[in-house]
Design a protein that fits this description.
Number of strands: 17
Strand order of the largest sheet: 12-13-14-11-10-15-16-17
Mean pLDDT: 81
Number of helices: 16
Largest sheet: 8 strands, mixed
Structural class: alpha/beta
Shape: globular
Oligomer: single chain
Helix content: 25-40%
Radius of gyration: 23 Å
Length: 473
């Protein structure tokens, strides 16, 4: 059978089953891949149906299925709570039917899962391997991040391997020509549809900034010149309780101090899709988050305006209002940020792909509470009694790689965005933020380095073509 887009005489409809797990994989792997699959295989759902089945993950929030359902390319989603009956007996909670031909695509979880599920359904199997590829004999094809993975594969199986590149680099790169760089972005009529953009000054937000309230500058009118845009700082404290308990009050305290020194700066939190506003606000409430009182950091209250054109915000004790941005993905917003304060994780890949300067904050005041590790370490860290000790050990081992924890630094194999770890003090971070704002050439240098190391786009497209080739075999 020829590729689906090349042969309109395809006689058999196919199912593409994506196996994934955590929120990071959904945002940075599944999202670009399902977009690429639709581009490669077409939008006729009677011919090509895309299903997502989630497996349990220690980093999961419980909202992963809802996130996957927001992707218009996806036809069916099953949550992680129903995974093991599907793995063991092949039955989904909603009794899904399966077409006679299909491909199981691994985008997160345990690489053994596609072996079992592929055999049960009689489907071909494709694994995306970021660091290590397993089960060479039983998997049909591998799309890998780099040549280094293939170097560890026995020669007899290397014909199954194709280097597609880093899917993390796809994060934040619009597939339809949208925002793709920090600073002002202008689509060119000749490049629209490829995600190509024209880059201007990195510290200058879009000429018509997204409306953030309260605004420190009036909106321009046809009879007045555009005002000088205010610097916008994005605050990305994470999506898990172990990160939010410190990340939210730390970021809010830094915001208060920066604003006290420069009242033109605006602040916004792009709210993770797995969080609701009430849950996020709880981490700014000293009655619900004891870390605030213990560390003497600031608190804030949630305000949700009744007017539909006004956005919710957190109001700190000094009166500073920090906008809450709930649209997802928030790439259009992030490209307007002069700087972001973020925790480690998929956020750093998205910001790196967008070339947005950042400071990566790793507060360790509650080191025994950091339990968001993947795989077996994550399971051990969440055990009762011994979990705290395991979490502390894993965190200390990870810190030996400090300077290489953020994705852009892993790409570059050196630190190009600062990673600040330890008993972080807001005053120290504030001084660094003000220094960067006062010296835009430093932000520009960081942005230039981000553009240089993020690599070429196209991993999702290459993986989609690999799936199409497997169908044609």
């Amino acid at each position: 059978m020829k590729g689906l887009r090349e042969d309109k005489r395809v006689q058999h409809a196919v199912d593409l089953l994506i196996l994934s797990n955590g929120p990071g994989e959904l945002a940075t792997w599944v999202k670009p891949v399902v977009q690429a699959l639709r581009e490669q295989c077409g939008n006729d759902r009677a011919q090509v149906r895309i299903s997502v089945v989630l497996s349990p993950d220690s980093n999961a929030s419980g909202q992963e299925a809802a996130i996957a359902r927001r992707y218009p390319e996806v036809d069916r989603v099953q949550g992680a709570e129903h995974f093991f009956p599907f793995l063991l007996w092949g039955k989904t909670a909603d009794q899904w039917d399966w077409r006679s031909q299909g491909v199981v695509i691994f985008l997160g979880g345990d690489q053994f899962f596609p072996v079992v599920i592929g055999k049960r359904l009689g489907y071909r199997t494709v694994i995306y391997a970021e660091w290590e590829a397993r089960w060479h004999r039983w998997i049909d094809r591998f799309g890998v991040m780099s040549d280094s993975i293939m170097a560890r594969v026995p020669q007899e199986y290397r014909h199954k391997f194709t280097v597609v590149g880093d899917l993390m680099i796809e994060a934040g790169r619009g597939r339809e020509g949208g925002a793709g760089e920090a600073g002002e972005v202008r689509e060119d009529t000749e490049t629209r549809g490829r995600g190509d953009t024209e880059i201007k000054a990195p510290h200058t937000p879009h000429p018509y900034p997204l409306p953030l309230t309260p605004s420190h500058t009036p909106h321009p009118t046809p009879h007045t010149p555009h005002p000088t845009p205010s610097p916008l700082i994005g605050l990305l404290p994470g999506s898990k309780a172990t990160k939010l308990s410190l990340g939210v009050p730390l970021c809010l305290t830094i915001a208060e101090q920066v604003y006290a020194a420069n009242s033109s700066v605006r602040f916004v939190i792009p709210v993770a899709p797995s969080l609701d506003l009430t849950t996020l606000a709880a981490f700014a409430d000293p009655a619900q988050n004891p870390a605030i009182g213990q560390l003497g950091w600031t608190d804030a209250t949630l305000t949700v305006p009744e007017a539909l054109n006004e956005k919710p915000f957190l109001k700190t004790r000094s009166g500073l209002q920090v906008e809450l941005w709930t649209a997802f993905p928030a790439y259009e917003l992030l490209t307007q940020c002069s700087l972001c304060l973020t925790t480690v994780g998929a956020n750093t890949a998205e910001l790196g792909a967008l070339a947005v300067p950042m400071l990566v904050l790793i507060p360790l005041q509650q080191i025994d509470q950091i339990r968001t590790w993947d795989g077996i370490p994550g399971l051990l860290a969440n055990l009762p009694i011994v979990g705290g000790r395991v979490a502390t050990l894993m965190t200390r081992l990870a810190l030996q790689r400090l300077g290489r924890l953020a994705w852009p630094n892993m790409w570059a194999k050196k630190e190009i965005v600062p990673e600040l770890a330890g008993d972080l003090q807001p005053e120290d971070i504030t001084a660094r933020v003000l220094d960067l704002l006062n010296h835009p050439e430093k932000l520009k240098h960081m942005q230039t380095q981000l553009r240089e190391v993020r690599g070429e786009a196209g991993a999702a497209t290459k993986l989609a073509k690999l799936v199409d080739e497997v169908l044609a075999e």
